[in-house]
Amino acid sequence: MTEHASTAGGDRVVIFDTTLRDGEQCPGASMTFDEKLQVAELLDDMGVDIIEAGFPIASQGDFESVQEIARRAKNATIAGLSRASFKDIDRCGEAVKVAGKPRIHTFISTSPIHMKHKLQMEPETVLQHVIDSVGRARNWVDDVEWSAEDGTRTDLDFLCRCVEAAIKAGATTINIPDTVGYTTPAEYRELFRQVRERVPNADKAVFSVHCHNDLGMAVANSLAGVEGGARQIECTINGIGERAGNAALEEIVMAIKTRGDVLPYEVGVETTMLMRASKIVSAVTSFPVQYNKAIVGRNAFAHESGIHQDGMLKNNQTYEIMTPESVGVKSTSLVMGKHSGRHAFKEKLKELGYSLGDNALQDAFRRFKDLADRKKIVYDEDIEALIDDEILAAHD
Ligand code: KIV
Ligand code: ZN
Predict the structure, then answer these.
(1) The complex's ipTM?
(2) Ligand 1 center from residue 179 Cα (angstroms)
(3) What residues are neighbours of ligand 2 (ion), with CB under 5 Å?
């Protein structure tokens, strides 16, 4: 695609997929050992930079799947999640250490509400946990990510102190999650800008976004965080995740690929595998993908209205900003329904192998519209039956 395609060749943004951890955490999305291996293999082949394979302390099954994914990964870094406890971290270290590129991701809450009610800890104790947990993780691996859970509702001064301490203790990635999907794009962009400006050793770590979709802004917030200086995006296939989900990987990647003019970043994901990834994750979790879901929904490249179909038949860039092929969809579909126009109907007849004279075409189109008023979608077989009737009637 020429007019819209854009690869700006800007800064590399690392894609961190957490389908197997945060995605699996949502009710009803649990996957079997084999299903997890299947998803991980696909993510690895697709060029995802980091795969968060699970939460090894959560269960023996989780430990084993993280370990096996770590053993099999060909290209991706394999991360495991752990709370800020030595027991968690050691279990995680044990699971990921067999990977070619292992990462321990450790987190603790830093917001007043979480520290007071969930952790029941004073801020200074939390700060000490940050230092101790990152130090412990560094005994296992060189690549340590530290997350400030509920980061967007954290006091900025305290957040900066924690970030500085985590980097000093050896964290190489700093993640500031919008755990409850509360932030807005402008606010999140500014948060990263401020933290990076205020923390003296900020340039020693990669900053990361991790957004939940409670207000439907997870993807917009993630991209805004990148504008604020983050260079890692945490996301999931189909946007599955806690409550309303996480930022959707396919939307993030295609936004960057399609709008390189205003989002001048490089991502390494092979976009033609996005649809396959969506289908596999939907199948193994039994989570349906909504019809109008961006990029991978059934209607993402389907057109029914006569005006749109007419435009598409003249030039596909009239109503599509990316090609279906670029995300692994075979082709655009012009769905025949009551909104379809004469142009699309004629093209459909051609595709089905019919050639009608003007009067017959006029008559068939009128009958098609009558049928479409009664039926939501008119399938190829309906049109074939309708034309065959028309032909028979003409011979009577
Ligand atoms: O949403 C969140 O805060 C998380 C952390 C564990 C990174 O998932
Ligand atoms: Zn999360």
Answers:
(1) 0.99
(2) 6
(3) 22
